[in-house]
Structures
1.
Amino acid sequence: MKFCLYLPPFEPFSDARVLARLASEAEQVGWDGFFIWDHISGERYPEKMVDPWVALALIAENTKKIRIGALVTPLARRRPWKVARETVSIDQISEGRLIFGVGTGSEVGEFDNLGEESDPSKRGEMLDEGLELLKTFWSGETVNYSGNYYQVNDTRFLPKPVREPGIPIWAAGIWPNKKPFRRGAKLDGIFPLFPSAKDDKDMAAQLKDMVEYTHKFRDPQKPFDIVFRGFKLPLDDPSYTQELLHPYKELGVTWWQTSLSPREFGGNLKDKIWPLQQMEDVILQGPPKLE
């Protein structure tokens, strides 16, 4: 199991240089991944935020081995060819450390207020077409594509991603919705969310159901990541931490995600209450050690 950090690039984290420093600190103390949210606007969020892809370029330049990415990019509000250029550029800077997270998006203000597609079903269709296009652009071959939402004629993109056949893709989904997990099963990993979970025990039960469902649609011979946004671990009690983590490892969780959202520390995004010292302390104390 690998361990990653997950934080919103808002307010004090809206400076790409700050995010690059935090990512470098995380790498030095042993975290395996550093991921940021991908938003451009939103009624639930502060106005002050940094473009995630500009930030990721600086993060890539200031780290050497930690995996990086945005979780998750609503591909339906992006042009797939622009995303293809951005992802490969950052993949090249990072020497193959980028992971691409995708979903349909759930922040209404990012769609309705900016004239983007507001129908979630149509965004799902756009996501599927966009993913097909993205992988074709990454191939380095000439692209000719005619879909319901996107058309491309005689276009070729180089360079290719560092790794073959392309940048790993994780798909996000809200359980118990089924379609996102059928989509994710055909990619490189899934990032499930369980907003209906009543407590940690219920979340683990839902995770088990999700894993069993997803495995019906994937190739068991191919590597596959399950990214779990875990609860806060008592790192001052290593034996108890081991006890908490092992059931999730047995369920197939390959990445345990530690959230650095202010609300995890008694703060508040909308009211701009950020317990910064507590948040940075979590980074500096390093990830759990799973034996």
2.
Amino acid sequence: MAENPTWGHRRIHGELIGLGYTLAASTAWLILRRAGVEPAPRRTGPTWKQFLTAQAKSMLACDFFTVDTVFLERIYVLFVIEPASRRVHLVGVTAHPTGARVTQRACTLLMDATDWIDRIKFLIRDRDGKFVADFDAVLTSIDGRWSPIASPNVGWAPSAESAPTGC
């Protein structure tokens, strides 16, 4: 514990699981408590909610939703939302979303976004396989200003090696 004073019982539990040991998180907590090890201190910095509230004007969030038609066909709708204004941009609609189509839709979004694109610094998206490296490369090609946001449930790993295609 001296080497990693900010590690709590959940982190230690996760490391033990990764090493192949099977135990409950409560067992790790009990062992630490009996050894006189205090809980890990709260991490400094804003919470996820505080970060989102403070940065709402400089971010976009994108995802898909589906629509099932009366002909039993599923349609995928790619949309982008500006959290500060709650303005939604429908970027693309297709029955067969692929990485290439999503990348092309990102190009279209950037061409149509002349009035608000300058203030955007962050993009929130999930780990859906349709968001390929070229999609990330298109968005980071805007002067390299767009940055990933680290979140427990959301991830974005831009690929600096990948050049935008199709724009």
3.
Amino acid sequence: MTTLQTLTIILTTGILSSCSLQERTDKIAAQKTASVNVSTSSKLKKIVDGIEKGNSVESSHIGEGGSPSKQWEKYEQLKKVASNDQLVALTNHKNSAVRCYAFQALVTKRSDKIFSILLKHLNDTSRVNTLSGCIGMTKYTGDYFVDVVTPNYVEIDIYKLNKAEKETLDSILLNDKSIILSAKSSILENLRPTTAHYARIRELVENNRNESALRALAKYQRQTDKELIASFFKDDDTQSSALYAVREFPDEYFYQFVTNVFEQEWKQSHYDYPKWRICYQILAKYPKAETMELFDRTTKSKDEFRYQTLCKYLFIAITKYPNKLYNPIKAKIKLSSYEMDEVKDELENDY
């Protein structure tokens, strides 16, 4: 055997041995990967099953004593174990609590699929039970998705929709008639009066008697809408919404409607507190003799409970909407320390 033949055999043998070793290494790595995937899959299934069994979406601490939530613990485990792709898949899980927690986890991870997933769930009207602290409620799953990406959501404060996404969401909620989420009302209450939205808002007020849209419509302050707005004073159940609308549009046309509500409520033995509160604020926007007479009547009440209750609302109103005519009225008001604390709280929080 020549030297060249011997060298060829040695090289060939080495190459074959190397390939065989690499093949065994690859098999071991594949087995380990499969083992990890199976382990992860099994662990994830256990977590998801646990969330489904708990069947609620809870904050980190619940109850009057602020006890740690076991559901939240499962959510924290879900974030650690599930990949982004798995979380995306879980937003379509049959259980609403799983869907909500999966979406919430994606938000904390700032996934680039958040907005597209949100839009897909705007018609998700399955119910989900929620518990934040000691406050429990039931809401649409779609509403929960919207809540998670809005500024008022306290558990997550690292992601918010950008301006373009927010405008797109607002437009869809406003114009898509198939969507019945509560988020639609929130959008209407905070919507700026732009020409693009006017026709739809007017339609919601006129055809659906939508009270959230009524307030939005009043912000346009169009003379042609006054009769439609005033029609909401005819029903006791919608008078408060009509008053809120007039606060946005304090036209003289509405004054008699407001004073009628005042006189109606004055005769009642039971108090509609929200209605009284807004009624005084509306009247404060009409600084004239007739308003002064109503305010003066309030300060002269002999019933201590009525005096303290109504003078509190009057004091708030003329503080929020001051006028020099009201200075003598304000000087007459003597509230208890308890009522003054409530005044301060309301003024600070701008209810």
4.
Amino acid sequence: MVNNISKYIILIAIVIEAVVFAVLAPQFLTVDNLINVALSIAITGILAVGMTFVILTGGIDLSIGSVLAVAGIVAAICAKSFGGIGVLLGIAAAIAVGMTTGLINGLMVSRFNVPPFVVTLAILTIARGLSFIIAERYAGSTSVSDLPPAFAFLGREKVFGLPVPVILMLAVFVVGWFLLQHTRFGRYVYAIGGNSEASFLAGVNVKSVTTWVYVLNGFLVGLAGVTLASRLGAGLANAGMQYELDVIAAVVVGGTSLSGGRGSIVLTFFGAVFIGILNNGLNLAGIDPYLQKIALGGVILIAVLADQLTKR
């Protein structure tokens, strides 16, 4: 019932903001701009799927932007260094980076009971430092560029008129929806977020499921990292700055409870669309970038307040 109400609210909000921006900026409803909106939320959307799983368990991951940067740089180095198979190696290496950091996060949270906020904040700092060190040691600068043309496929090519990142995002949402709604793993994720002690007593391996949730999130961070590097044509040490803000905003605005146990991938998709339209519309309307940050923060605050009122 709550999910249905949230779905209607977010859909109404999307329609209202679309109408407002169409009035403020007539170019908003053009096909090219709508494709730009879809492309702008592709990376955020991929990350938001993993974040939804994490938040549903009652956790959080602040490290996604920094890990994304490391994954993108590693992918770029592999693509540049290993010739024909370098691109495939780069994709595999980026995903391995993401899954490794996800495993570290998951083990620290599930096995050592370290609060997710503390663990992922530490990994955020470590990974950001590593991104600059790796880039400077390899390229002598903060970016790894001059990549082979084949590396551009994930980020710049189109299939059936749609950018590959958008297709990739939609595929990730479908798989994420299936995992949550039609697998035992998905039911365990909801159960742990609702009541981890009751889940343990019911026979759920809470530690294992929680660890795998963070590994899954890391996989998607690595995938997003190589996709962003492909789109930019370089691995950048400062890539992904404040991505965690947009991603958490998309998940929370979509109705997923920060306390865990309630939410859905479909609502996260709508939340990502809402944030994408908001950012795009404010840009087209010529709103000051600093005011845009204030607007985004206000949206997050309202979404969290609505979540609290819903629980009451």
